[in-house]
Design a protein that fits this description.
26% of the residues lie in helices and 25% in strands. The protein is an alpha/beta fold. The protein has one domain (3-167): Aldolase class I (TIM Barrel, Alpha-Beta Barrel). A 7-stranded mixed sheet has the order 3-1-2-4-5-6-7. It is globular and about 50 Å long.
Length: 203
């Protein structure tokens, strides 16, 4: 049985890629980008071990409510065998696959692990490169820093689509009695600033 370490899953969300999506944060990352938005997801000891079949059952149950899934983390390519299996299952359901990775595309394409290539092949939209807190991206939706590149790996989405440009998107929820924020930016100070700005705009 194939398993994957999961930090959290949110469905549906419109803050982690185009359309309504299931966002899947994997647990564990070999990279240590300064200012990482999800430092609690870096270590391998956290999260929950879940069978990929259970994830796919969840996705299948939501297929009429979402247009795809987004892998974040953590580092999705660090668990490529499991995430590739899930991605292939999504394509079988005619759902799109978006992946955020701290690795650059060239690194992934030259990787010796065939599972890395399998996840890349099942990816419609890849956002690659380490997060750089010194280069916040305030133009493209869903992108953390200007050095990161959006790679359109299939014809599912087009770079000219206006939905990829716009104001930063984030969502606030109460889950399990806790306040959670997803979408960019994740820092509480920045979120508070954006909320204050929007209140002024409404007023």
């Amino acid at each position: 049985m194939t398993t994957v370490k999961i930090a959290k899953i949110i469905c549906p969300t419109e803050a982690e890629g185009p359309g309504k999506r299931m966002a899947i944060w994997v647990q564990g990352c070999p990279l240590r980008c300064p200012g990482c938005c999800n430092p609690e997801m870096l270590g391998d000891s956290g999260g929950e071990t879940v069978a990929t079949s259970a994830i796919l059952e969840n996705i299948t149950a939501q297929r009429d409510n979402i247009e795809g899934i987004t892998f974040l983390g953590g580092e999705p390519f660090a668990q490529a065998a499991a995430t590739a299996e899930i991605a292939r299952g999504c394509h079988a359901l005619s759902l799109s696959v978006m992946v955020f990775s701290g690795f650059e595309r060239a690194q992934l394409e030259s990787h010796s692990d065939p599972d890395v290539g399998a996840l890349l092949a099942a990816c419609d939209l890849l956002v690659d490169g380490p997060y750089d807190r010194a280069q916040p991206d305030e133009v493209r939706r869903w992108i953390g820093s200007r050095n990161q590149v959006m790679h359109f790996l299939s014809d599912r989405y087009q770079p000219s689509d206006s939905q990829f440009v716009g104001e930063e998107t984030f969502e606030i929820r109460f889950l399990g009695g806790q306040l959670t924020v997803n979408g960019w930016p994740a820092s509480s100070d920045h979120v508070a600033s954006l909320l204050a700005r929007r209140r002024r705009d409404v007023a």
